[in-house]
Amino acid sequence: MLCLQQKKLAYANSWRGTRMKIRTKRILILLCFIVTLGACTAEENKTQNDNENGTIYSADIFAMDTYMTLSAYGEKAETAVSAAVEEVNRLDTLLSVSSEKGDIYYINQNGGGQVSEETAELIIKAKKAFTETDGAFDCTIAPVMEAWGFRSGNFCIPEAEELSELLQKVDSSKILIEGTEVLLPDGVSIDLGGIAKGYTSHQIMEIYRENGITSGIVSLGGNVETLGTKPDGSLWRIALQDPENTEEYFAVLEVADRAIITSGGYQRNFIQDGEVYHHIIDPVTGFPAQNGLISVTIVSKDGTLADVLSTSLFVMGTEKAVNFWRQHKDEFDAVMMTEDRRVLVTEGIMGVFTPLTNDSVEVLS
To answer: Residue 5's pLDDT is what?
Structure first.
């Protein structure tokens, strides 16, 4: 195994700095107030402000290995945001691969077992995504991710023999589930990281609605979901980060009641011998996906679906991703950037898409 033993320290500082920039700048939320993700800490940070649009209450927290900002307008904004924070922490524990109190940790350690109805439902959705994306989304990719060091930070390029052996354990169809009983064959483990934040943002929106909130927004490490419009009736403006220049943005989307979730190889990676290796692994090859796309943004009413598809379409590559959208265009829209910086925008959102660069824009129909 070609581990980065001598290079690890050299890349560690730049990696941590890059990751912090990504976490705080991946998607810029263009609001009538300023959300400073860089000020977040592991402790919950709450703020309340009154302006011409009413009372806004926000909380900055660290959960699910990322920085999050939850904001809501209205008289019950504080109640709604506080309840949402509790929900984030609950789901973080329940779905974590490392929390001993969670369902996923338990079944991975024991080869299966009884889980909550909620966890069982998410596993079923992950299995369904595996089938519908022809394996591009696979929640059993965890052993391969570990071999590359994307969990521990001890980055390695696995040997071909090791990858071949690990890929034998990557197949979501091997997960057996009946009711709330899960059975994992020897060596198979589950990681719901590719679906958990999208599901979490969806749950937050439900909490907002239950508390009478009609205007709110959350950013979960770059996964953005909006409720209604801004209080003044205008659309939320969400800027998309340039995958080749993470200090800049290449487009803006104007949305209401939508999740906007982006996947790109620039979000988490390491460099060895001049080559960049990113964290979006192709379940077929066991290597970072190199299929012609460098950024995929999904826009959908369903945050869970958007989370799944941002990764899936990135893995599929340009041609398969476009064909997949054409078969499911009633469920989502997309903005995709190719390696040669063509920007592909599906027709359903072209009217709310504003380019910020001179890149070629093609409308998919």
So the answer is: 40
